[in-house]
Amino acid sequence: MDNPIHIAFCVNDGYVPYMLVTLTSIIDKNQSNEINIHILTDYISPQMQSRIDAVITGSPNANYRIYTIKDERLKGLYLNHWTIYTWYRVLLPEILPIRIHRVLYLDADTLVLGNLQDLFNINMEGKSVAGTTDVYIDGKCNRLEYSKDKGYICAGVLMMNLDYWRDNNLTEGLLSWAKGHNAILRMPDQDTINVICQDTKVILPLKYGIQKCFFIDEQYYHNPKLARELKDCIEQPVIIHFAGSAPWYKEIAFHPFQKDWENYNNRVVPSVKMKYMTKGWARIKMHIWYTLHPHKKDTIISKSEILQRLTDHVI
Questions:
Q1: Which of 73, 86, 154, 303 would staple 134 via disulfide (CB 3.0–4.6 Å)?
Q2: pTM (2 d.p.)
Q3: Is 145 helix (H, G, I), strand (E, B) or coil?
């Protein structure tokens, strides 16, 4: 069996069903690894814990532990429309046992379609975090007042070098900086991580955090390096991130890997039911508008269509 891998989630009861889809995909694609799952929460009910048990128990190479967080230390942090759980990930270096040297944090709207061992093997000496580039970084770096040449990563898929965090007291540094800069934050902990780790982060290939927006932004097709990475996203995907395209909401479930999520969802009992974000009259108006303007309706960009578009840009 390959080296143990450690993966963390920060969720409450409401997000456990989505996390179970992610867990099912992790176990399926990493059967030669010892998989250690760490769940940070303020509360998970016995009913939801039994559902986690059902997914993990049938997998001899997987185990999990729940850590109940007291979040008084996080009071006063900027949240925007996020919940306090978004900040839990910065506590991982202090909460996880010292014997754990690195952990992969995943949002609950992710899916794993490849083996993670290569990701855990990347060189992170002197580095704090690793993640894939986010989109529209110019405005974010300008707002946060650091050079865009240093990059801006998405924290929804985040490899954390816990030894570096501990040695440099990074958690305390992040929390202290964030509380003093609420006025410029928009994506709370993600902004803060990018600022504090601007000189110590690793930019990963896109296949380790595949977002829908990669495939609709022309800059990715016309940049030879990014175009090659897009091709790898389709042919050798590792981690899918459904940021802005939650696969369980009918109005926004338009990610190229939507069907892959649905396939794993069907393996979870009970499966997550598709639902609507809009309700009542707002939903009726939405259906009427799309009926009258069918060309405006978002659709899933197929993998074959993406590869066809890349033909002229990838050597």
A1: 154
A2: 0.92
A3: coil
d(CA 53, CA 195): 38
What does the pLDDT look like over 219-238, one tens digit per residue?
Answer: 888 888 899 999 999 999 99
pLDDT digits (tens, 9 = 90+) for 42-100: 999 999 999 999 999 888 899 999 999 988 888 888 888 888 899 999 999 999 999 99
Of 230, 204, 227, 234, residue with least CA distance to 315: 227
How far apart CA 27 and CA 11 sit, in angstroms, is: 19
CA–CA distance, 315 with 225 (Å, rounded to integer): 10
**Which helix H or strand E contains 159, and what residues bound it?**
strand 157-161
Tokens of 266: 């069907």
What is the spatial distance between Cα 126 and Cα 109, in angstroms, rounded to a whole number?
29
Secondary structure class of 202 (helix, strand, coil): strand
The structure tokens 């993990």 sit at: 56
What percentage of the chain's residues is helix, strand, coil (to nearest 5)? 45, 15, 35
- Is-contact 8 40, C-beta < 8 A? yes
